[in-house]
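User: For a teaching handout, I'd like to show students what a predicted protein-ligand complex looks like in token form. I'll give you the sequence and the SMILES for fe (ii) ion. Please answer with just the structure.
Assistant: Understood, here is the input followed by the structure.
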Amino acid sequence: MTSELLKGLNQHLTLEFRAAHEYLAMAIWLAEHDLPGFAKWMTQQSSDERMHAQRIIDHLVERDQKVKLPAVAAPPMDWKSAEALCTHVLKNEQDVTASINNLYAMAEKAKDRPATIMLQWFVNEQMEEEAAARAVLGRIRLAGNTGVGLLMIDQELAGGTMPGMPAEPADTAGN
Ligand SMILES: [Fe+2]
Ligand SMILES: [Fe+2]
């Protein structure tokens, strides 16, 4: 593996751990604000993010490359609204997508096939993650950020019946 790609993959771990930490903090805030469906969704997202970091770690360990675990900053614990929170989720996912695309290009340039294949999984995953965040945000904007509208979306999320969102945890296969 090129030193550039190794550095890039280690740096990417920061984004996955940051997302895991932030989504857990969001799940706590959502539970505190009587939105258990939203909280369930974010708890699942948080553990997905840790699993994403683990995938990269496993790849590096398997190839006898040095893993450097990053420090993770304390996440925000307060949000103006569920809409503000979901807007941040989408922004986060877009940042992760940009980093994955960058790593993919690096792996391709280096003709590193194992890394390219490993990153291909992330390319698909990010498409689903962005779609899910956009679906929730779209519902909030349609139904309203408070009261009955929000309750309705919360119930959809609790039951896993949100239209436009991948059915269950996107990554059930092979992790
Ligand atoms: Fe992720
Ligand atoms: Fe994600």
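For the handout, you might add this sentence: The two ends are 23 Å apart (CA to CA).
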